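Researcher: Quick test of sequence recovery. Tokens follow.
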């Protein structure tokens, strides 16, 4: 396993593999690795000759400086986890060389409507930051495959749009959400939860499951049913001690509001418990 911070060096190594006809799967992360990340890496290993994992806490995608400052860093631990699963390259760039023009001067990538709803509405600029970092990472690594989690469902759609917009020849693969035993979606931020917050947090998944069952139980669900379910779920989350930002029943392909049950649906939640913001979703 090679560990490289220098951009040019990483680029040369990946180019060498490509020149030798060896394929590359890429898993971008912000570190503090958990089993969800490792499931992505497992998939990556099954697809290509080399797996590249990046660890980079991208300042551009944080709309809240405190969130950035608090973001957990566990680099030594991450490195030993990655050595155990035996990836080819861990790429850990420094922000100063990744954005040599200075973070405030970066020309960010805008991808339209999909970036301004749901997460985009609550975290202004977040997806422009995500698209910008991923485009630069793709340029350095030049992967054949890039693996992302359904946990960040909207992010996955944004990445697919990015690839389409710039006609990048990269296969984007989405992987199911990896959960704790009680249903809480694994997340690097979970380590900030207090014991009692951690216990309560599984309620998000229970609510998602219950909305999913409710939709399935209605013969022909329509707009009013979806609105009722969104409202009652928000109330349930508040009663359980959360501050919900949104509960949204949306069409899978567009993330536009669900109209009926003919199209595949996804239920998305963002809610705070104490100071920790959690997101989760479930397909219907
Ligand atoms: P992050 O380090 O949070 O930026 O996440 C890196 C990648 O791991 C993203 O593609 C996430 O969607 C994915 N990921 C994060 N949590 C999970 C999870 N619980 N299950 C599956 N993938 C995840």
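Model:
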């Amino acid at each position: 396993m090679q560990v490289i911070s220098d951009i040019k060096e990483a680029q040369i190594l990946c180019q060498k593999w490509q020149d030798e006809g060896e394929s590359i799967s890429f898993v971008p992360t912000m570190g503090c690795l958990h089993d969800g990340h490792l499931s992505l890496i497992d998939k990556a290993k099954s697809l290509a000759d080399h797996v590249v994992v990046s660890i980079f806490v991208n300042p551009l995608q944080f709309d809240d400086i405190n969130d950035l400052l608090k973001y957990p860093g566990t680099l030594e631990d991450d490195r030993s986890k990655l050595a155990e699963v035996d990836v080819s390259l861990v790429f850990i760039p420094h922000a100063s060389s990744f954005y040599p023009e200075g973070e405030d001067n970066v020309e960010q990538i805008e991808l339209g409507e999909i970036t301004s709803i749901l997460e985009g509405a609550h975290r202004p600029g977040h997806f422009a930051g995500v698209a910008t970092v991923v485009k630069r990472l793709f340029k350095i690594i030049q992967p054949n495959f890039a693996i992302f989690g359904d946990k960040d469902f909207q992010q996955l759609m944004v990445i697919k749009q990015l690839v389409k917009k710039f006609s990048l020849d990269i296969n984007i693969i989405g992987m199911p959400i990896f959960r704790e035993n009680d249903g809480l979606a694994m997340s690097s931020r979970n380590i900030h939860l207090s014991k009692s917050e951690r216990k309560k947090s599984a309620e998000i998944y229970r609510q998602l499951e219950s909305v999913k069952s409710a939709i399935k139980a209605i013969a022909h669900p329509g707009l009013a049913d979806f609105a009722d379910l969104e409202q009652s779920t928000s109330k349930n989350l508040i009663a359980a001690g959360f501050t919900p930002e949104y509960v949204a029943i949306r069409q899978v392909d567009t993330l536009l509001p669900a109209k009926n049950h003919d199209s595949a649906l996804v239920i998305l939640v963002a809610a705070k418990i104490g100071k920790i913001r959690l997101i989760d979703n479930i397909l219907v």
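The chain has a mean pLDDT of 96.
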